[in-house]
Design a protein that fits this description.
Length: 219
């Protein structure tokens, strides 16, 4: 940033000590094997047995199909969603409720939230550390747990979109006859949406994104 004015313009980083990372890594090793059964198949990042390249290939085919529908009555569109400060905006209450919704034991959730909420920050100004303060939301990007916990936050958007498709209010893209209808693909905190190119469908997507934003803190 050529002329930084706000704290975020200085690209602050979050650091974790070695002991914390050991604890966090132990929790990750227990959590990772369960993810493929819990997280939507539309998500391809950080899940054993899935490759981001798989979603990339599917996205390429969908976009190619959308281009072939240009200027037809079945025109569709692709929308790339890039969340601003995705990890930093995670709402802790939502994360805790999401873990509970998936059936994790209270003790396990308490361990996870203890890691998430133990964060303390301090700003270094003119070579001097200022008073320590505690955040009220967000995940540290240097924390081994953060990418995996964010999957549960992103999965809420996937659930909203899938529900709308099943109810018939949102029309995804089928690249050929008999192919499954694809409405979205997730790459960690990046999302590709595919839907019918109409004002009505755009309003449906807008409503879903507003619901997701208000619940999770994402923008």
């Amino acid at each position: 940033v050529p002329h930084p004015k706000e704290l975020k313009d200085f690209r602050p980083i979050s650091l974790c000590n070695v002991i914390y990372k050991l604890v966090s890594k132990c929790l990750v090793n227990r959590l990772r094997p369960c993810l493929s059964e819990l997280i939507s198949e539309n998500q391809s990042a950080f899940i054993p047995g899935r490759l981001i390249s798989d979603n990339s290939i599917i996205a390429f085919e969908c976009i190619h199909h959308i281009q072939s529908l240009k200027n037809t009555s079945r025109a569709a569109c692709a929308y790339k969603l890039d969340l601003s400060k995705a990890y930093d905006r995670v709402d802790w209450d939502f994360l805790e409720k999401a873990l509970s919704r998936w059936g994790f034991l209270e003790q396990w959730i308490a361990w996870i939230m203890s890691c998430v909420k133990s964060v303390r920050y301090s700003v270094k100004l003119n070579g001097k550390l200022l008073e320590v303060f505690s955040p009220s939301r967000g995940l540290r990007q240097g924390d081994p747990l953060s990418p995996f916990l964010f999957l549960f936050v992103a999965d809420a958007l996937s659930a909203l979109l899938s529900k709308s498709v099943n109810e018939g209010s949102l029309n995804g893209v089928s690249i050929c006859r008999g192919a499954p209808e694809i409405s979205h693909l997730l790459f960690a905190d990046d999302t590709l949406l595919f839907f019918e190119a109409s004002g009505q469908q755009a309003n449906v997507v807008k409503g879903l994104l507003n619901t997701y934003s208000s619940a999770t803190g994402q923008l």
